[in-house]
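The records we work with from here on pair a chain with its fold. Each token is a code from a learned vocabulary of local backbone shapes. A record is reproduced here so that you can trace the correspondence yourselves:

_____
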Amino acid sequence: MGERNLNFDLVIPRKDTRSLKYDFAEKRGMPKDILPLWVADMDFQTSSYIQDALIQQVNHGIFGYSEATDTYFEAVRNWVKKHYEWDVDQSWLIKTPGIVFALSLAVKAFTQEGEGVLIQQPVYYPFAEIITDNKRKLVINNLYLGDDLLYHLDFEDFEQKIISDKVKIFILCNPHNPVGRVWTIEELTRMGDICLKHQVLVLSDEIHADFIFTGKHQVFANIKKEYEEISITCHSPSKTFNLAGLQASNIWIINQNLRRKFRKEFRASGYSQLNVLGLIAAEVAYQDGEEWYQGLMKYLKDNITYVTEYLEKNLPQVKPIKHQGTYLLWLDFRGLGLSTDELNHQIIQKAKLWLDGGEMFGEAGAGFQRINVACPRSILEQALERLRAVL
């Protein structure tokens, strides 16, 4: 039986399904009838192979302590090899319930309170939270927007901040959420060499690695042998196959000493095996999900083109930043001349749209909004019409 869930135009009602995206608007201070395109999960059913495997397990009816077998690693290894050209070893793998969870463990394992951890804003907001909540020093190396409508790295500031703030960890976001950059091998190498020089540990969050529309994904640890010794690589099927609620992530640590310290911190957290449904979903996704994934990528590419062309034609004062990776578009609303509060009021209260306000990704994000385009085209059309009617 082949893949059944390839109709990405199909609108699946998500209200009253305990969906964070659809069912908690009022609890979060939003209008009840708001259209949500904020949090990064998709409005598509996952691969039917995953659905069938989960149904089979549920019918078995026993949900005891479970662990992945060798077939789990084989599925993950084959995917990583095929899609990122990276040969991995089973001994490197530590499975965690999520990437942010793993990043927080690493911050605790490899730094002391008050020590510097560097991020590149505007960036995924939990990065800042796990630094400050763990009483580490938040160090910011802001990205800057070029005339080419692409974000770029300030390497001089990057190195200067590492030196002046005695940075111990750098959290790399590649592809970058929310600005949609896919860093080139040259850019990654330049950052990597600076981190090598100053013995900075690189936590490489590559959760969006499967959503590359321009260029190709480069695993940071796979650029140079030396980078293997100073990096922790984070992958997950949760974004790729819309499995965030099942909580399964793959953390690769090649350096044995780093791996030992990370495992010790993991044990201290009190967490042991992943949930059985997450393990099954991840294995089947990487084993049988290719056809679904390719269909998804084509649909997302068309959605990205649709939004870009719609804005150019109907709302030229809203500029989409040139998009290379992820299914999240970064939109520049600064041309409207509105304050952050005014802009949010227009979008939330008038247009009844729930996007992610740029300021949550750091001060450098003020005046921007992040929109999730992983939904049926009809929902996207509705959202853009609402925006146009107000702006």
The two ends are 48 Å apart (CA to CA). Residues 54-288 form a domain with the Aspartate Aminotransferase; domain 2 fold (CATH 3.40.640.10). The chain has a mean pLDDT of 97. The longest strand covers residues 167-173.
